[in-house]
Amino acid sequence: MKNFKIAVIAGDGIGPDVIEEGKKVLSGIAKLDGTFNVEFTDFPWGCEYYLREGRMMPEDGLSILKDFDAIYLGAVGYPGVPDDVSLQGLLLKIRKGFDEYINLRPVKLLKGAPCPLKDVKEEDIDMIVVRENSEGEYANVGSRLYPGTEQEIALQTGVFSRKGCERVIRYAYELAQKEGKSLTNISKANALGYSMVFWNEIFAEVGKEYPDVPTSSLMVDAASMFFVKNPKRFQIVVTSNLFGDILTDLGAAIAGGMGLAAGANLNPEKNFPSMFEPIHGSAPDIAGKGLANPLAAIWSVSQMLDFFGEETWGQKVIDAIETLLLEKKTLTPDLGGTAKTDEIGAAILEILGRK
Ligand code: NAD
Ligand code: IPM
Ligand code: MN
């Protein structure tokens, strides 16, 4: 029997609450299916670990994770530990260390999900954002000079390599071609005359190999406006690390909220484990209250199942989330319900178990 080994880093704040529900759903599916097994190994890494040990994960953390089939991550960051320390020490270290250069973030309005836009039908919001996930604005190269003086300077350099741009852009073209969809390139070459001009050149260059993929290009500011005014124009989207980060929170807002937005951090070559997570943070404002919506974490289970080659189950999980939203019986407060976080996993499994 297939055995999928999953490293679980529940992390901080609402991370453990939502991950618990995702684990319930995944082990329930393995039981229902009967042809594969899932084996979870929990790692207590995060901000509490940092306060005890002085680091977010052990020094050999990456080699501990290296042989797992996937990583399932909740959220990282909590007041008391500076965000740059917590995120650079765990989440971003894994994304970069494992060369998870594709961040796949569906922005899809499911039936029954709330949408703040007027006159929008479900099928109007159905895109996949392919975010560069290993370099760009997140390379974190820079310096601080003359600290504490009037001349103090902070330098933060973006790093856009030919290899880095090409591989994410190619991935997006391949995806668009496979799905018969259009591809929108989102950049900002009018102001960023080195990095984004380079990015656009590579978009055009790679595009020559995909003459059948309809493309368009937008500046990130205009794209943000169109996410709200005309989301229908987007199918597959490719963009840089920082722009993808910002646009997918906006995407979450138009497609049901932070509680419904998932993301897969992929190393497509499978040289390293890929990582699956809700895109929201640790939400300290609602942590420990049973208020967190675990559907984003459950959606990322669907992405994990796709990645394992269990696409039928991946789709069934999305369908079950949709049924839950339509039935409106077991929803957390962000979706207008009164259910607690720990009721959602069982409700999804109940739907999956229906004949
Ligand atoms: P956040 O996503 O944690 O919260 C933003 C808002 O959305 C809050 O009002 C929160 O209550 C709400 N929200 C988020 N997830 C929700 C859910 N599942 N159900 C219901 N409501 C939900 O963003 P933030 O407040 O900017 O960040 C909090 C901390 O999380 C910071 O330390 C930040 O660095 C970190 N962070 C981590 C990740 C990650 O680990 N992937 C992502 C974003 C932010
Ligand atoms: C996300 C988060 C992270 C990012 C932060 C926590 C570093 O916002 O996954 O969207 O910016 O990538
Ligand atoms: Mn983000």
Automatic annotation (TrEMBL):
<dbReference type="Pfam" id="PF00180">
    <property type="entry name" value="Iso_dh"/>
</dbReference>
<keyword id="KW-0464">Manganese</keyword>
<comment type="similarity">
    <text>Belongs to the isocitrate and isopropylmalate dehydrogenases family.</text>
</comment>
<dbReference type="GO" id="GO:0051287">
    <property type="term" value="F:NAD binding"/>
</dbReference>
<keyword id="KW-0479">Metal-binding</keyword>
<feature type="domain" description="Isopropylmalate dehydrogenase-like">
    <location>
        <begin position="5"/>
        <end position="348"/>
    </location>
</feature>
<dbReference type="GO" id="GO:0000287">
    <property type="term" value="F:magnesium ion binding"/>
</dbReference>
<dbReference type="InterPro" id="IPR024084">
    <property type="entry name" value="IsoPropMal-DH-like_dom"/>
</dbReference>
<keyword id="KW-0520">NAD</keyword>
<dbReference type="InterPro" id="IPR050501">
    <property type="entry name" value="ICDH/IPMDH"/>
</dbReference>
<dbReference type="InterPro" id="IPR011829">
    <property type="entry name" value="TTC_DH"/>
</dbReference>
<protein>
    <recommendedName>
        <fullName>D-malate dehydrogenase (decarboxylating)</fullName>
        <ecNumber>1.1.1.83</ecNumber>
    </recommendedName>
</protein>
<dbReference type="InterPro" id="IPR019818">
    <property type="entry name" value="IsoCit/isopropylmalate_DH_CS"/>
</dbReference>
<keyword id="KW-0560">Oxidoreductase</keyword>
<dbReference type="GO" id="GO:0046553">
    <property type="term" value="F:D-malate dehydrogenase (decarboxylating) (NAD+) activity"/>
</dbReference>
